[in-house]
């Protein structure tokens, strides 16, 4: 027969068992919390993950770009490039200056030329004074007059051969002409007035008859005029055409009067206004 332990030993045993049970329960609860934390997912920090996943800029490319930009700006600071740009700009400036100078000189030359031509046209008056029969029965004598009205002084006029043309159909046919004896072609100093005669022979068949019994004739004076005795480029060409109706030698005055319904003796020539 066994004996039961004493009461003090029993109490101690019960207390020790209670401590062991409490420790076991505490370890079980701790294990359970660990299992729960391992099984239950934690909430994700998306903003943090995005920041962590974003690519970060490195310093190396920035340095490379800075070097490249620096090289490009250094190119414009090169003495060779600056010198070339200066030469190009200088060439453009010189070309523009020359163009402006030439345009101004040309404009002034044109103005001076117009003034000279206007002065010559206004200062020299050319007139066909008369056309008369020559004794040879086939030629005519035309008298031309030059009148200088310039207040500056004399005009120097080069006389050229006077051209004479007779209308045949729709065209003009030139006929022989020459200055009379004592008149020489060349430069003449015209102070106030000067007159000279020209002889021409209009031996033309089938001449145009614009008015009954008369030939249509053009007498053209071509002169070179200057205000200087030793002219340079300041020479002006002065062309003065005169249109007349000319009665042929041996024409029948009665027939002309009848056809034109005029009275009196038909004149040798009938002047026309310039055309």
Structural overview:
With 275 residues, this protein is α+β, with helices and mostly antiparallel strands. The chain has a domain at 120-271: Immunoglobulin-like. It is 41% helix and 28% strand. The protein is built from 5 helices and 11 strands, in the order ααααββββββββββαβ. Strands 3, 4, 5, 7, 9, 10 and 11 form a 7-stranded antiparallel beta sheet that branches. The longest helix is centred in the middle third of the chain and has 45 residues, at 79-123. The protein is rod-shaped, with a radius of gyration of 62 Å. 12% of the residues are buried.
Number of strands: 11
The amount of beta strand, in percent, is: 25-35%
The CATH C-level class name of the domain at 120-271: Mainly Beta
Give the end-to-end Cα distance, rounded to a whole number of Å.
Answer: 179 Å
Pattern of helices and strands = HHHHEEEEEEEEEEHE
Task: Enumerate the spans where pLDDT stays under 50 for 5 or more consecutive residues.
Answer: none
Shape: rod-shaped
Structural category: alpha+beta
What is the helix content?
A: 40-55%
Total number of helical segments?
5
Largest sheet: 7 strands, antiparallel
Stated plainly, the CATH topology of the domain at 120-271 is called Immunoglobulin-like
Radius of gyration: 62 Å
Report the mean per-residue pLDDT as an integer. Answer: 81
Q: Please tell me the CATH architecture of the domain at 120-271 by its name.
A: Sandwich
């Amino acid at each position: 027969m066994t004996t039961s332990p004493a009461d003090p030993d029993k109490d101690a045993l019960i207390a020790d068992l209670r401590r062991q049970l409490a420790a076991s329960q505490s370890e079980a609860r701790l294990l359970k919390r660990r299992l729960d934390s391992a099984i239950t997912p934690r909430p994700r920090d998306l903003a943090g993950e995005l920041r962590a996943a974003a690519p970060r800029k490195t310093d190396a490319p920035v340095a490379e770009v800075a070097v490249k930009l620096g090289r490009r700006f250094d190119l414009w600071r090169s003495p060779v490039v600056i010198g070339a740009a200066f030469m190009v700009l200088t060439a453009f400036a010189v070309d523009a200056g020359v163009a402006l100078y030439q345009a101004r000189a040309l404009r002034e030359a044109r103005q001076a030329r117009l003034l000279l031509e206007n002065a010559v046209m206004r200062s020299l008056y050319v007139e066909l004074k008369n056309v008369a029969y020559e004794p040879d029965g086939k030629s005519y004598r035309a008298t031309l007059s030059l009148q200088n009205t310039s207040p500056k002084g004399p005009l120097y006029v080069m006389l050229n051969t006077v051209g004479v043309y007779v209308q045949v159909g729709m065209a003009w046919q030139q006929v022989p002409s020459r200055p009379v004896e004592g008149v020489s072609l060349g430069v003449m100093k015209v102070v106030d007035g000067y007159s000279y005669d020209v002889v021409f022979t209009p031996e033309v068949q089938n001449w145009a008859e614009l008015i009954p019994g008369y030939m249509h004739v053009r007498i053209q004076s071509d002169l070179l005029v200057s205000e200087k005795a030793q002219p340079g480029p300041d020479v002006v060409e002065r062309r003065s055409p005169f249109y007349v109706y000319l009665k042929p030698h041996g024409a029948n005055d009665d027939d002309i009067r009848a056809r034109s319904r005029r009275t009196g003796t038909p004149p040798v020539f009938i002047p026309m206004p310039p055309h």
